[in-house]
Specification:
- 13% of the residues lie in helices and 11% in strands.
- The protein has a two-stranded antiparallel sheet.
- A hairpin with a 5-residue loop joins strand 1 and strand 2.
- The chain starts with a strand and ends in a 21-residue tail after the last helix.
- It contains 1 helix and 2 strands.
- The chain has 53 residues and is largely without helices or strands.
Length: 53
């Protein structure tokens, strides 16, 4: 995120890497509240077909 003030100076105010957009995925927010969290070793490896649990 960048901010430009009245004098035209640009400031870097915030950065987010890798999981910065997780708030946009509702399932991730709920999983983060559970005791084991997402319990994943790779991105979204907790998603499985209904017959493979």
């Amino acid at each position: 995120m960048f901010y430009k003030d009245e004098n035209g100076e640009v400031f870097h105010t915030y950065s987010s890497y890798a999981r910065g957009g997780d708030i946009l995925l509702g399932a991730h927010n709920f999983l983060d509240l559970t005791p084991k969290g997402r319990n994943e070793s790779e991105t979204m490896n907790w998603v499985r077909h209904h017959d493979k649990y």
